[in-house]
Amino acid sequence: MLYNKLKPFPDDFLWGASTSAYQVEGAWNTDGKGLSVIDMMNHSTESADFTVASDHYHQFKDDIRLFHELGLKTYRFSIAWTRIIPNGTGEINEQGLQYYEELIDELHRYGIEPIVTLYHFDLPYTLQENGGWENRDTIAAFVNYSRVLFSRLGKKVTYWLTINEQNTLILHPGAVGMPKNGELPSKKSLYQQNHHMLVAQGEVMALCHSMCPQAKIGPALNMTSMYQATSKPEDAIAAHNWETLRGWSFLDLATRGEYNYLLWRYLEERGWQPKIEQGDLKIIKEGNPDFIAINYYSTATISESTGEKSDVMPRAGDQQIMLGEPGVYRPEENPFLDKTKYGWIIDPVGLRLTLRKVYERYSLPILISENGIGAPDQLNDDLTVHDTYRINFIKAHIEQIQQALTDGVEVFGYCPWAAIDVVSTHQGYNKRYGFIYVNRGEFDLMDLKRVKKDSFFWYQKVIESNGAIG
Ligand code: BGP
Question: Where in the sequence is the signal peptide annotated (predicted)?
Answer without folding.
Answer: none
